[in-house]
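Shipment paperwork, digital attachment
Item: protein structure file
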Amino acid sequence: MSVILCTAGYDHTIRFWEALSGICSRTIQHPDSQVNRLCISPDKRYLAAAGHHTVKLYDIKSTNPNPLLTFEGHTGNITGVAFHCEGKWMVTSSEDGTVKIWETRSGTIQRSYNHGSPVNDVVIHPNQGEIISCDRGGSVRVWDLAENNCSHQLIPEEDVSVSSVTVASDGSLLCAANNAGNVFVWALIQTFERTQLLPVTHFSAHKEYITRILLSPDVKKLATCSADHTAKIWEVADVDPTVPTPLPVSSINTLPSSPNNNGNNPNPFINGNGIIHHGSSDSNFNAIANTNLPDAPKPYPLEATLQGHQRWVWDCAFSADSAYLVTACSDHYARLWELHSQQVIRQYNGHHRGAVCVALNDYSEAR
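Attachment content:
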């Protein structure tokens, strides 16, 4: 199968589609719960379906409707799932407040990191040495797998749930979106000792809840999906990350202290990762907060607003060439958009309830 496209949602089914014809070629029943997220392994062999408490791993090429393996260990809805580049391990996030790393052959938990708040999303840095997750408490955390700890904690807006994160395929950018409809962008600077995060820009993208944010494979586009019934495409503009931008003070990095494995620290103002919160008594706080900053950073230019969805747009996936986007919507449909014309060129009809997740792999060969 050169193109693998699948969708799932609240009707307890996973559907495989012929991308060009729009025909549903296979349906897998998922009776235990709705499906929250889907992920195709880089070698196109497996599909991971994240549900209420479990992740089920299916053989894409087999006609067997039963999962090869079931990953058990979370106690809440699983909200994110991603594969290691060679499929050796898998990472998940959950409303139970944890991020877990699994050995994919045995289904055993290798590590578990605690957010202390329901976790909404997780992605793997392309260096395969860091994972990035976000939570309902309003934080974005970077977990260093070599050091086995939380190396950074960012708080874009105090007490606003961060709904989704995405990292550039070349490791250059980290983007996060929150429930207030805002987007935040950081440059990821690789140094000899550690990754540094420098604010690039932030802007209001939607007036309502952003459900998903995703950078295109060529890192030239940024997609956002929203409860406002639209998906939007933004141009990833070149911004000098060394020029400071007036992000909220609570997202500014200082020199890190030593966190424990969960990234926790009893100090209520400065956490173990050196991120200053509002109200900090730290002597450097006022100096950092009052640095002469330029005018508000320019948002990424809006390229397109994809209209035609009838309800919440929950998820999206770019094609390998970044020219197309598939969206999944509560109106039961998934849609294939040609981004140049901003037109729907295929609609996938078959779900009887909301389609909330989509996975697409159309790379010419396994990565």
